[in-house]
Amino acid sequence: MFWKIFLFEVQNRTRRPAVYLYFAAALIFTIGTFATGSLPLGEKQHINSPYIISFWCSAITLMMMLVSSSIMGTALYRDIEYNTKDYYLTYPITKPGYFWGRFLGSFLFMALIATSVVIGAIIGTKLGPIMGWRDAKEYGPNNFMYYFQPFVTIALPNLFFASALFFGLVAFTRNVKVIYAGGILLFLGYFISVFFLNNTNNATVTILADPFGISAVRLLSGSTPSLIKNTTLFPVEGTVLLNRLLWTGIGLVILLFTYFNFTFEKFFSGKR
Is 243 contained in some domain? Predict the structure, then answer.
């Protein structure tokens, strides 16, 4: 049953123009950013250095929070909107198959949209010198690991946390308006919290309290020479590793809590 729900979700997403628009928007934005070098660069730091790619993965996934609210929120709400409760309550569909099929089918597309960051950065590094916007010497080699490591350790955990949060919200509230409003409020709340965290001298607290890892990249970049930032991967260890485990764990707790409290009868009873 899981695979039927999962494949149905995948097929449904491939027919929705919004998915392609989200991908295209993130791709074009990333291409333009890396082609023009509109990034917080240090002296003699490559535009496509591992630290800059790590920063962009954290920043773009923060902006994709609104995309998460849209894609993950509608995964469940669609069944309320189209009043399919009679089908689900009479057909032998299991709770694990329905819940995880919906979540993983939607999260797959969140990950696919996020690949636009990697693709766009690589294209941007080629387009910048061709168009004469930046000198080719300002770019380093396009090493596969420079892109893969930030995507796996920063982008995917960020997307998982946001996806679990919004998926859980729609499961409990059964109201899609709450999801969109929650996405905007969380987005604004993040910047307010970062403003206050920037005024503290405790680097450990600043790093751990940032669910998207932007503060970690910013703090470590400020104390690392450009040569190291150009040639070594962003160090996901120590407090930074703890940050990644902490917020991924919080996302997992939210998701499991939602799953164990989810019932078809309660979910299809109506809006809250």
Answer: yes
Distance (Å, whole) CA 3 – CA 89: 19
Side chain identity, residue 50: P
Which residue segment(s) compose the domain that 186 sits in?
A: 2-267
- d(CA 122, CA 215) in angstroms, rounded, equals 24
Cα three-residue angle 70-114-133, rounded to 5 degrees: 120
d(CA 197, CA 176): 31
Round to the nearest angstrom and report the end-to-end CA distance of the chain: 28
Amino acid at 2: F
* Structural domains counted in the chain: 1
The pTM of this model reads 0.91
- Domain membership of residue 8 (yes or no) is yes
> Largest Cα–Cα distance in the chain?
65
- CA neighbor of 62 nearest in space, from 151, 149, 159: 159
Of 234, 47, 51, 50, residue with least CA distance to 137: 47
Enumerate residues 6+ apart whose C-beta is below 8 A from 130. Answer: none
Per-residue pLDDT of the chain (272 residues; tens, 9 = 90+): 788 889 888 988 898 898 999 999 999 999 999 999 999 998 889 999 999 999 999 999 998 888 888 888 887 777 776 666 556 556 667 888 889 999 999 999 999 999 999 999 999 999 999 999 999 999 999 999 999 999 999 999 999 999 999 998 888 887 777 777 777 778 788 878 777 777 777 888 889 989 999 999 999 998 899 999 999 999 999 999 999 999 999 999 999 999 999 887 777 765 44
Determine the Cα–Cα distance for residues 2 and 101; give it in Å rounded to an integer: 5
Helix axes 156-173, 239-260, angle to 10 degrees: 30
Q: Tokens for 191, please give them.
A: 């910047």
Asked if residue 272 belongs to a domain, the reply is no
